[in-house]
Amino acid sequence: MRISRWAVDDLGLHRLRLTHSVANPASCRVATKAGFALEGTMRRALLHADGWHDEHLHARVRGDEWPGE
Predict the structure, then answer these.
(1) For an engineered disulfide with 59, which of 17, 23, 35, 44 has Cβ 3.0 to 4.6 Å away?
(2) What is the rounded distance in angstroms from the CA atom of residue 5 to the CA atom of residue 33?
(3) Cα dihedral sign for 7, 57, 68, 66?
(4) CA 16 to chain centre
(5) Alpha-carbon Rg of the chain, whole angstroms?
C-alpha cells in the first residue's frame, strides 16, 4: 500500500489498477485490503501454463479513501 500511496500522492497519478486470476482468491483479498475496489472480470485475459484464465480487475482512483483512514 505504501507504493500505491506514493504513486497517487507524490507522483500525482490519477488511477492505479491491478489484475489477478480469479482462481487466486488470496490475491483478491490482498487487493481489497489495500483499497483497490473490484471493478469487474475480464474473461480469458491471462494466459497460464494450463490455458486462459479470467482475471479480476481492481483499481484505485485519486480521492478514494485509504484503508484505515
Answers:
(1) 17
(2) 14
(3) positive
(4) 8
(5) 13
pLDDT reported for residue 1? 76
pLDDT of residue 16: 96
Residue 68 confidence class, pLDDT cut points 50, 70, 90: confident
Any residues with CB less than 8 A from the CB of 7 and at least 6 apart, and which? 13, 16
Average pLDDT over the chain reads: 93
Percentage of residues in the chain having pLDDT higher than 90: 83
How many Cβ atoms are within 10 Å of 31's Cβ, its own excluded? Answer: 21
Angle, CA 56 vertex, CA 52 and CA 59 arms, to 5°:
140
Question: C-alpha cell of 29?
Answer: 483479498
User: What is the Cα–Cα distance from 41 to 61, expressed in whole angstroms?
Assistant: 18
